[in-house]
Amino acid sequence: MGSSRQRFVVVGGGIGGLVAALALARAGQAVQVLEKAQAFGEIGAGIQLAPNASRVLDRLGVLGAVTADAFFPRRLVLMDAVSGDELTSLDIDDDFVRTYGYPYFVTHRADLHRALLDACESEPLVTLLPGSEVVEIVETEGAVLGRCANGASYEADAVIGADGLWSTTRATVFGLDGPPRDSGYVAYRGTVPMPDVSDAAARSLVDCMVIWLGPHYHLVQYPVRRGQLRNQVAVFDTQIYGRDTDDHAEQLRQAFAGCCRTVAAGVRLLDTSRRWAMMDRDPIQTWVSGRVALLGDAAHPMLQYLAQGACQAIEDAIVLADTLQESDGSITDAFSRYQAARIPRTERVQLNARRFGDVLHAGGMAAAMRNALFATRSPTDSGPVHWLYAPGAERASEGEPPIPVRVASAPGRPQAS
Ligand SMILES: Cc1cc2nc3c(=O)[nH]c(=O)nc-3n(C[C@H](O)[C@H](O)[C@H](O)COP(=O)(O)OP(=O)(O)OC[C@H]3O[C@@H](n4cnc5c(N)ncnc54)[C@H](O)[C@@H]3O)c2cc1C
For residue 288, what is the enclosing H or E element? Predict the structure, then answer.
């Protein structure tokens, strides 16, 4: 690398912010991560990471640590939540790993975040600053200043706004584009000890990532912590059942009233004390303003239906670090290459996530047609998701599907116990 060391401030220490800090530090840059929470951490339960994310984590030297307690499902399965029948599946076992070079895995968010935090803590070029809520970003001659609510200010050569769906960086630097788009859907999520899963049909799918599809609702189930816990996410449309309610357990029960016994048994195990509104934004055509760039949900918040929000933040991070190296340290050049490479890609993922949500939540005739089409698929056909997972996809533009690559020697796919 011909460039000299620069100072970066990353706003936000979520998955995107930590991977960005790591990628920049591995590229020789000094990074301060300003996180508003008093301690770094992740809430929520499980997370799925596809080969496009595993590949980046391996390049950064953290795939082993991140997958230490992960689970490697055998199949991605779509089930009919009403009849209990299997609709279609995708094998993600050894052949899939050979095709994409990297595994699809599921893990606990806390485990993923902890592994990234450990890597940042042992990286001398990264400084982690919890309790630092950025409230203002000011560009000065040749530098940029992040001011925090606690009165501290940090000067840097560039700022990366990785501060999530409600990004202050996006609002203050790029002008208010209003609140995110509320899809009307909400999610309840949590984990249960695997021995509590007693339903026979559910047990037969314990080594799979399963989505049960019903009209206006779905339930996701997969193992985490090496299979000791089962993660569950129940999602439904409050436009049908009402946004405001005092009795969340009852509303969840009503939304899943028509489902089969296996799904009902899973839904009963969910904690209803907290729920998440499913929100996204329309794609935007610039993520860069002077010495400030957006990354992750701050740049491209998406619905979770393709399980790609964090994967895309991870892709952003490596492309940012790569473009900086390619630009010989010129921040303006790097930022413009970064957004040129990333916006078409993430726009495609954002829009397809919405469309896939419509497919998941279809009812009546639309669901019957979907199911008939699903029945014609082969479980080894990864064609429909190839554009998401293939090597090089992180810089592929809309209309330019990445070239299929078959990797001869894939890294081992550890067998979860
Ligand atoms: C139900 C559900 C399931 C999902 N499943 C998956 C999945 O399986 N796979 C997948 O890839 N993605 C999934 N996602 C999406 C994924 O969780 C997000 O895309 C990802 O966490 C975004 O990471 P981020 O770092 O960009 O933002 P965030 O995780 O939101 O992190 C932002 C960080 O910035 C901090 N912050 C905010 N404002 C400030 C400020 N002013 N100053 C300092 N710090 C600040 C916050 O405290 C936070 O730590 C799912 C999302 C949901 C809701």
Answer: strand 288-289
Nearest atom within ligand 1 for CA of residue 13: 49
Nearest alpha carbon, ligand 1 atom 4: 304
Question: Which residues partner with 154 through β-bridges?
Answer: 146
Tens digits of residue pLDDT in 100-136: 999 999 999 999 999 999 999 999 999 999 999 999 9
- Residue 87 in contact with residue 54, Cβ under 8 Å? no
* pTM > 0.90: yes or no: yes
Angle of CA points 108, 109, 114, to nearest 5°: 105
pLDDT, one tens digit per residue, over 63-79 is: 999 999 999 999 999 99
Question: Please, which residues bridge with residue 224 across strands?
Answer: 229
What whole-number distance in Å separates Cα of residue 238 and Cα of residue 362? 15
Ligand 1 atom closest to residue 148's alpha carbon, by position in its atom list: 42
Share the mean pLDDT of the chain.
92
Q: Which residue has the tokens 């998401």?
A: 388
56 alpha carbon – ligand 1 mean position (Å): 18
- Please report which confidence band the pLDDT of residue 177 belongs to, taking 50, 70 and 90 as the band edges: confident
Chain center to CA of 135: 25
The residues facing 294 across adjacent strands are 161
Q: State the alpha helices, DSSP H only, in 13-62.
A: 15-26, 51-59
Residue 170 CA, ligand 1 centroid: distance in Å: 15
Q: Give the residue among 239, 346, 254 at the shortest CA–CA distance from 296.
A: 346
Q: Which residues line ligand 1 (CB under 6 A)?
A: 11-17, 34-37, 47-48, 133-134, 162-165, 168, 187, 189, 233, 276, 296-297, 304, 307-311, 313
Residue whose CA is at the smallest distance from ligand 1 atom 6 = 307
Extract the tokens encoding 203. 């047990």
Cα-to-centroid distance, 76 and ligand 1 (Å): 23
Which of 100, 154, 188, 222 is flagged as catalytic? 222
Q: Is 222 a catalytic residue?
A: yes
Alpha-helical regions (H) of 68-191: 94-100, 109-121, 168-174
